[in-house]
Design goal:
Length: about 500
């Protein structure tokens, strides 16, 4: 293989994938190994950072060994997972705290009284919690300890400790930076008693960073991005207005807005968050992000808890056994509801059940309910960005379900473009690394390289779509504030 290929290390929530991205945009030579988080108690999620380091080294070396040499190395990662290690030994001081970890909810609520709105899924209060445990006085932190998200850890591991870096896509979701993701926020560091000396240097998402000395030939590390931003680039969304949605266990929709920086990193009135999409050549591109907490987890509920389907794949066939739900509506709020309403006390609901409601109708209602939540995300993103999405690019496990994809196209009233690769995150990190070394000239070349596997057109007319959206939104409103005490909590 030509030396213009790229090596990508992609660390997700459940495992590490190392793969080769070719100049034609294909992803191959994949080496994957599971690294599952643990949950020692409800609400706690911990990650074995030492195990991740071992698997990053072995899988990256295996993928690189199949091609001999590469033009550069890219990193994609689960965002906001937080770890601290000793800069002299390279050993983690304890388990990393996963992005889903909720042990600092109380701290976040208390700090609101002082004017600080730290979300519990961000790194800020997680880092403070680790330091409170291992170094309450912060003496050791100032001299001996490094903080990083998973991208920082991978760069440290691959460079044999020579690089302590992060990029703006990851830095901005720590809740420790200014809105550009390029500068650490002194007030946030002060209130949490975090020494600036333990923070990584913020570098471009696409550009030369340093040598990956732990790998044969010491190839250049030249691309870094959080998973959702990497998927955005991997779906060719490198022009303002373009958007992608990823439907996995939950759902995330990201839209590129352009070069105008947000005034703050807080949640907007429409329920989205501003994000750094990427930074290249010192120039930052921004976007908005909308999220749903329950997507594929609703299919798991049908399978594992309700016993209505034997496996996730059969949900499409079972749902297709009926033409419609018979006016049954499902609200996918198993863990509360995020964009646009942000109600942690909302709960999942089924409305309109009659004696004639059967398994097929319930399964179809669940798929259509997730699709309507996808429409919620798109409407919120368009409202906050002021940019219309002509077609929505979709990836993630649920994109393989034809009934869901058609329901999504009908709910949004736009074409749905399905990703040609299941590894859009890996491909995006490859694009970022490739732009740094000339495999792709710029963002326009990346946009031109995008070709969907297929496009699904909506079948409903405007009037029918409006009726269905209205009925579903009515159901959504009835699922809110199911647990008022939780509904009163906001971040």
């Amino acid at each position: 293989m030509a030396v213009s290929a790229l090596l990508v290390v992609d660390v997700g929530t459940s495992g590490v994938r190392s793969a080769i991205v070719s100049p034609d945009g294909s992803v191959g030579r994949v080496h994957h190994e599971a690294v599952l988080p643990s949950s020692p108690a409800p609400g706690l999620v911990e990650v074995d950072a030492a195990r991740i380091a071992d698997v990053v080294r072995t899988t990256a070396a295996a993928a690189l060994g199949e091609v001999g040499s590469v033009a550069g190395v890219g990193i994609a990662n689960q965002r906001a997972t937080t770890l601290v290690w000793d800069r002299r030994t390279g050993e983690p001081v304890g388990p990393a705290l996963g992005w889903q970890d909720l042990r600092t909810v109380g701290t976040c609520l208390m700090l609101q009284a002082d004017g600080f709105r730290f979300p519990p899924n961000a790194s800020a209060t997680k880092l403070a919690a680790i330091l409170d445990e291992v170094d309450p006085g912060r003496e050791r932190a100032a001299e001996e300890l490094c903080f990083g998200t998973i991208d920082s850890w991978c760069a440290w591991v691959l460079s044999d400790g020579a690089l302590h870096v992060t990029d703006p896509t990851n830095a901005a979701v720590t809740a420790l930076t200014d809105p550009t993701g390029s500068r650490w926020d002194e007030r946030a560091l002060e209130v949490l008693r975090i020494p600036p000396s333990m923070l990584p240097r913020i570098v471009d998402s696409s550009g030369p960073i340093g040598e990956a000395r732990a790998l044969p030939g010491a190839p250049l590390l030249c691309g870094m991005a959080g998973d959702q931003q990497a998927a955005l680039v991997g779906q060719g969304c490198t022009r303002p207005g373009l958007a992608k949605a990823t439907f996995g266990t939950g759902g995330m929709l990201d839209q590129v807005t352009g070069s105008a920086a947000p005034g703050a990193l807080d949640r907007s009135d429409g329920g989205t968050f501003p994000i750094v999409a990427w930074r290249r050549g010192g120039e930052t591109v921004y976007g908005v992000e909308a999220m749903m907490l329950s997507a594929g987890s609703c299919i798991e509920w049908l399978r594992d808890d309700m016993g209505l389907i034997p496996d996730a794949e059969s949900s499409a066939e079972i749902a297709a056994a009926c033409e419609d739900t018979g006016d049954v509506w499902f609200v996918p709020a198993l863990l509360g509801m995020a964009t646009p309403v942000w109600d942690f006390g909302a709960r999942g609901a089924l409305f309109g059940i009659t004696r004639g409601t059967g398994r097929a109708e319930v399964v179809r209602a669940v798929l259509e309910g997730v699709a309507h939540r996808g429409a919620d995300l798109l409407e919120a993103a368009e409202g906050d960005s002021g940019r219309l999405v002509e077609s929505l690019r979709v990836d993630g496990g649920m994109s393989a379900n034809p009934v869901f994809v058609q329901a999504l196209a009908d709910a949004i009233g736009r074409p749905v473009d399905l990703s040609a690769t299941l590894e859009a995150t890996t491909l995006g990190a490859g694009f970022l690394a490739g732009m740094a070394v000339g495999v792709w000239s710029d963002e326009e070349a990346v946009a031109d390289a995008y070709h969907p596997a297929r496009t699904v057109e909506p079948k409903l007319g405007d009037a029918q779509r409006a009726t269905q959206r209205g009925r579903w939104l009515e159901a959504r409103s009835r699922a809110l504030k199911t647990i008022p005490e939780l509904s009163a909590i906001t971040f």
